[in-house]
Amino acid sequence: MENGTIALMCRLPRAQDLQELCDLAYEILGNPVFITDLAHTILAYTRRVKIEDPTWQRFIVESHLERKTITQDREVSVVHSESSEEGRPVLVEDSFLPYPRLIKTLTEHGNAIGIMVVTAYLRPFAPGDEELVELISSFAMSRMTQERYHLSENVHTLDNYFIRLLDGAQFSRERVLKRLEILGYKKHSCVYVLAIHAEARAGQPPEEIGSLLAQFHRIGGCYALFYNSSIVCLYGTEEELTDWETQAPELTALLTRENLIAGVSRTVSDMSLVREYYRQAQRTEEVGVRLGRSGRYFCYDSYASFLLLMELPREKLRDFCHQKIRDLGAYDDTHDTELCVTLQVYLEQAKSLARTAELLYIHRNTVRYRIHKCMELMKTDLEDGNEIFAYILSLRILEYVKKFLPDKEGMTNGKNL
To answer: What is the DSSP letter of 381?
Structure first.
């Protein structure tokens, strides 16, 4: 074996992804290579040379660019099974392609996860090529398991594609929409990404997780998959939702029955940016839980101000908190009262005594007394819109300090802000 080939083989363990592995395989074998998952979706292929083969161009290059699923004939399927059973590459010479090829089924723990194909386009196969394909395929299998490209069944192809998007794969908006259409995903007028924390379920048997996902799939407009200890749900509707509890009754019933809480993104404007919307939903769910808010849904726009506060240095928070609110917080600390929380809920609920009483589980007269006390201490009638905005922001700063920043230095609602 030539020194150059040995040097190339030494680079195989360091290949960063499947495409680099394909590039190395081409240099080692001297023939084009492609790798697919079990749904025959092209994951990587030789790009360094232009192959004047209409079949290769149509089935490999165009399929990869458009992320289409290539079609395999019955004979290839038989060869794929043979390679899987015998654990070695199989030489194929038939009419499906005008050139011989070596097919190796990629397996993990005895289960097929993909296929590697080498086509004898540039040179005839030589002794030792089968062993080289076997070696290279072992690294391809390792990369596939690490990158989560592998599929157990063809029906999981859509899951696989969304996982790639959630992992940060970047494609154009048009390309993503076309790919989703090919995979059978119906795009509604409005789509939201929901991050539903399910860490406690991560250790459950796959069939139990699958059963839970099946419940989501039975809800109209709902598509769900398991990703990084969370259930990621894409919920599609024909109009924007403003009250999830009542406008999505089936989903609300499922979340309630399974005791789950969902962070909700803004309306998805570009499906190629699913990862960003997932991060909105994920962070909103984390904030809502930490704040101890009630309800099954935490919507991004309602909690964006808290996410903004997380970006500010602790020492800067004081500069943005209204002096009257800081004084009111200090009064709460001194007299063991709950004026700040009552005022915050009251203002956030458009000054509704009934709704405030309901949310705080207190009598309306108690709310009325506390609000009157706040107005007296702050010397305000709570009618100025600019003041109300400043008060709500400042009250959220106090809530953030209390629930997000450790109280190791004696920091309380108002005294040390």
So the answer is: -
Residue 233 has pLDDT above 90, yes or no: yes
pLDDT at 191 over 90: yes
The helix-helix angle for 364-378 and 353-360 (nearest 10°) equals 110
Cα–Cα distance for residue pair 375/388, rounded to 1 Å:
12
Residues 6+ apart with CB under 8 A from 117: 33, 34, 35, 36, 101, 102, 103, 104
End-to-end CA distance of the chain: 72
Taking CA atoms, 300 is separated from 66, 282, 306, 308, in Å, by: 33, 9, 10, 12
Q: How many CB atoms lie within 10 A of CB 87?
A: 11
Please state the separation of Cα 113 from the chain's center in Å.
22
Cα distance between residue 121 and residue 99, in whole Å: 6
pLDDT beyond 70 at 222: yes
Q: What pTM was estimated for this model as a whole?
A: 0.59
Are the beta carbons of 409 and 328 closer than 8 angstroms? no
Beta-carbon contacts of 313 under 8 Å, excluding residues fewer than 6 positions away, are none
- The two tokens of residue 29 are 């074998």
pLDDT for the residue numbered 142: 82
C-alpha span between 125 and 102 (Å, rounded):
9
Calculate the alpha carbon distances from 94 to 98, 99, 102, 127, 256 in Å. Answer: 7, 8, 12, 20, 57
Return phi, psi of residue 90, to 5°: -120, 130
- Are 184 and 234 in contact by the 8 Å Cβ rule? The answer is no
Token pair, residue 407, equals 């109280």
Contact 231, 217 (CB under 8 A): no
Q: Is 168 left (phi over 0), alpha (psi -120 to 50) or beta?
A: left
Element (H, E) at 92: strand 90-92
**Distance (Å, whole) CA 359 – CA 361:** 6
Written in H, E and C, the secondary structure of 113-168 is EEEEEEECCCCCCCCCHHHHHHHHHHHHHHHHHHHCCCCCCHHHHHHHHHHHHHCC
Tokens at residue 343, please? Answer: 């005022």
